[in-house]
Amino acid sequence: MDLAPGEQASARRAAVQQSLSVALATGLYAVSFGALSVAAGLDLPQTMALSLLMFSGGSQFAFIGVIGAGGTAAAAVAAASLLGARNGLYGPLVAPFTGARGWRRALAAQVTIDESTAVSTAQPTPEAARAGFWWTGVGIFGLWNVFTFAGALLGDALGDPRRYGLDAAAAAAFLALLWPRLADRAARVVAALGMGVALAFTPLVPSGLPVLAAALVAVVVGWRRGPQQPDAQEAP
């Protein structure tokens, strides 16, 4: 439904506030990535290069997981690439309201991640969706790299990060982000189907493909339901 100007401004402020809270929560668990990365044998410049250039939490954890287990660089790159491929599926969802032109298209592509997509597509207006995308994506990028640096510096002092549960921090944080999105039946069905597909594929295919297959479930369901525009939703 169309919102009055005051309601549109309120929706945009709410999107910014949500973005900042998500950015802070997500950025904080980059400490675990930095610590685990140095524990896996990477040095500080290598760790920071992964966060600055790859900038996909799941892919980064997959990369250092393979390296830490004694795998080859090629195997680590393959696992990270398969997990990162899901971000390409988000492009058609966020492109209509990012407002990206010229060099901003490259920046938009870099910050198109799980969280920026989730926050932006949950907003009631195109303006709020645009604000949610940029504030979430850029906010996480900045904080993720700051806390990666901190975690890498603390890595040697902490010892084995698994002793503190830091190896599970990323999964726990993402579950906390996802949980509020399962408020309606359709979202729960998609989540259940994706989980079933991922579990079925896990023992059969290389690392990364189960997540990509689960993401395709959501894409197929969304395509069958038709496009859902942010301005067609009611304000919260």
Explain this structure.
This protein is mainly α. The protein has one domain (5-232). The chain is 74% helix and 0% strand. The chain has 12 helices and no strands. The chain has helices at residues 5-28, 30-39, 44-54, 57-68, 73-84, 86-98, 103-110, 114-121, 126-158, 169-178, 185-201, 209-225. α1 (5-28) packs antiparallel against α8 and α8 packs antiparallel against α9 (126-158). The N and C termini lie close together (12 Å).
- What proportion strand? under 5%
Provide the helix percentage.
over 70%
Spatial gap, N to C terminus = 12 Å
Structural class: mainly alpha
Low-confidence spans: pLDDT under 50, at least 5 residues?
A: 226-236
Number of strands: 0
**Which whole number gives the mean pLDDT?**
79
> What kind of sheet is the major sheet?
none
| Number of separate structural domains | 1
Write down the secondary-structure element order. HHHHHHHHHHHH
Task: Supply the key terms.
mainly alpha; 236 residues; single chain
Briefly characterize the structure.
By secondary structure, the chain is an all-alpha fold. The chain has helices at residues 5-28, 30-39, 44-54, 57-68, 73-84, 86-98, 103-110, 114-121, 126-158, 169-178, 185-201, 209-225.
Which helices and strands appear, and what pairs or packs with what?
Elements: H1 5-28, H2 30-39, H3 44-54, H4 57-68, H5 73-84, H6 86-98, H7 103-110, H8 114-121, H9 126-158, H10 169-178, H11 185-201, H12 209-225
Helix pairs in contact: 1-8, 1-9, 2-4, 2-9, 3-9, 4-5, 6-8, 8-9, 11-12
